[in-house]
Every structure is written in structure tokens, then in C-alpha cells.
Amino acid sequence: MLEAGEDTVDLHGQVERLKRRVAQLERNDAIHQKTIEASPDVTFRFDPEALCNYVSPAIADVLGYTPEEHVGSSGFAIIHPDEQHLAQQLRERLLPAMPGTGSDRFGPVLSRLRHKGGHFVWVETMVVIIRDPDTGVVQEFVLTARDVNARVEAEAALRVSEERSTAMLDNLQVGVVVQGARSEMLRYNEIALDMLGLTAEQIEGRDSFDSRWAVIHEDGSPMPGDQHPVVVAITTGKPVREVVMGVYRPASDSRVWLLVSATPQFDKSGRAFQTVCTFTNITAQKQAEVLIREQKELLERMSSPTIPIAAGVVVLPLIGQFDAGRAERVLDGVLSGVALHTARVVILDITGVSTADAAFASSLLQISRAVRLLGAEVVVTGMTPSIAQILVGLGIDFRGLVTRGTLQDGVAFALGR
Q1: Within a domain: 198
Q2: What is the pLDDT of residue 98?
Q3: Quick check: is 139 in a domain?
Q4: Residue 366: pLDDT above 50?
């Protein structure tokens, strides 16, 4: 009898433990159910035929249905027609399988579900397949759908904006480079790559401090990275306008001259987080300037020769405009010509001078005084009425300066001395 009593007590204890376990499971299930019902994600439960036997209240907010309206309907009916392949993939996974084979999780997958209003809503879905632990036969499957419509639409709008921005950059006729807070390259257009002689792969990872740019100033001196317009704009927080930079082009082993501007952009805290750098290719302009300067210097040398026309007499025809630099070169040429030809008379013919001002008048007097110091005399010829009027209007005393109307008159005067 004692042994039977002990067995009864032990059985009673096991029953109590099972009751407590069942109660705990029921409490956990209730908590789980409350969690599902409070979640903004929609939870569906489907039988193996994909008929809905439960849907959480969140369906009203996401898809516009009440739970009662959707229970009993097919889970595949509201999937967008373009995404029926996802439904097929799910059907294949619902086929009977041996326990432990295959995957009982499907997703996350981005898809569209039809709203009660007729439009489609983007959701991110995850499916969990519940199988019989012994046979592997599908008992049901649970699908959760998270509303990501706002995110997808924002991403689509961002893509459109980026595509529009890229198209705009590519259609600009100037080079554009967007550089980050450390002057690293973020974006660029095709024209920028063409001007810099780089490919997209070659420009990646570069910043303004990269020695491969080999940038120089207009005078040929090196321009270190901290002097580049982008870095100056980031450092000072102010725009930098129209800086001339000579940049090395590895593709052609040459240098391109760029006119560069940089404008910093600020975040909400006032920090310069990136800089938009624009530039135009002024290489042809720089080359033209050099050519014009060289031609001007050549013309001045050719237009200011000291020409001996007789023993002790030289002629210097002046052509074009006068500035301080040219006046100095003319003076050097006259003095050299006087010494070289042992001249007594220097004829300055100004027939070809286009304009006259105080600097020109001062130059004539300076040349005359310097020539006299060498024991020679200056005769000015070719004075036009307009230039004579200008010089008189300047109020400069020209007494002592010999003038003659034409070059022939000046030659006659010189030969008679």
C-alpha cells in the first residue's frame, strides 16, 4: 500500500508540473498574441492551401482591410501581378518535405500588395513555414509584412533626383567636382574627367593633397594642397572665385590650365561637409596670351630699329602704343644706336604712333636729354596735328626739342648739321 501511495503522490506532482507548464505556455502565447496585435507589422497565418485563417489588426492601417474582411481569402490574390513569381517560389517551398530538409524561412522580400482602395503598397515580407515535426508536412505558414511604402517612394524619389542631378552635371559645359570635408572626390561629371585627363577609376580616392596633381601657379611655382581653392573654401567657409591653376594631365603628359571656383556647402550645424568645385579649360586662352605677348615683343623690337642713313645720322621709327616698358626699351635702343653708329643726330619718327599722353611726352623729353648727354641731338618728325594738340594740352614744355613735319625734312635737317 505504501508503494502505491508513493506512486500516486509522484503522479500528482507530475500533473501539477504539467499544469504549471501549460499555464506558462498559455501566458507566453497570450503575450505573443498581444505583441502581434500591437505591432505595426501585419501578421498573416495561412493554411497549406494559402487561405488566410488569421490576420493581425495592423492590416487596417497598412492595406485598408479589417481582419474579418481578409480572413478566408487567398494569400496570393493581393500580390502584384508583376511579382507572382514570388508566390510560385513560396508554393514550391510549401511542398511536403522530410523533417530538417530545405529552408523554412523565406525572405525578407520586397513586394507589392493590393490595398483595399485599389492601389498597391510596398511591403517587406518574411515567411516562416510550420511543418509537422515527424512527417515534414506543412501545417501552416506565417507571413509578416512591414509597410515600407514611404521608404521605397523616398528611395525612388532620391534615385530620380540623383539621375536628374547626374544628367544636369553631364550636360553642363564646365567641369564639376564635388569634394567632401577632407577634399576627397565624391562626384564628378564627364567633362571634368576629360579636362583632367583621368578615368573614373583614376580619380577615385584622390583628394586635393594628392601629389599627382602637380599643380602650379601662373608664374610656374608649385601650388601645395592647402592652397587649392577647395581646401581654402573648406578651411575658411567662404567661396573662392576664379583661381588659375596649372594641372598635370597624365593621359597626354601635358598641363591643362583651369580657371577654378569653389563653393562650400554646410550642414545644419554649420559645418562645411562638402564643396562644389567648377572649372573651365583656359589652356587655349593662356597659350594665346603667351603668343600675343611674344608677338607684341617681336613687333616692338621690329618697330623700334635704329637705322643708320648717313654718317652720324640714325633714324628710329616709332609705331603703335607707348607704355612704360616700351619707353624703357626704346631709350635703351636709342642710346645703343648712338654709341654703335657714333651718331650726331637721332631722328625719332612718330608718324606711326597711334595715341599720345603724358607718359609719351615724358618719354620724348627723357630720350632727348639722354641723347644730348652722349653729345648727339634728337629731331622729332611726323608730328600729326592731333598728337600736337594733345601734347600742347598737357602743358609740357617742349622748348629745346627740335621737330620737323616729315621724315624727309628731318633727314635734310640732320644732313645739314
Answers
A1: yes
A2: 47
A3: yes
A4: yes
In this prediction the pTM is: 0.44
- Mean pLDDT score, 359-369: 84
Average pLDDT score over the chain: 84
Q: Name the domain boundary from 121, 151, 181.
A: 151
Percent share of the chain, pLDDT over 70: 88
Domain that includes residue 221, residue range: 170-287
Do 186 and 139 lie in a common domain? Answer: no
Establish if 41 belongs to a structural domain: yes
Residue 26 amino acid letter: E
Least confident of 25-34, 52-61, 203-212, 397-406: 25-34
Tens of pLDDT, residues 4-50: 556 666 777 777 777 777 777 667 666 777 878 888 999 999 998 88
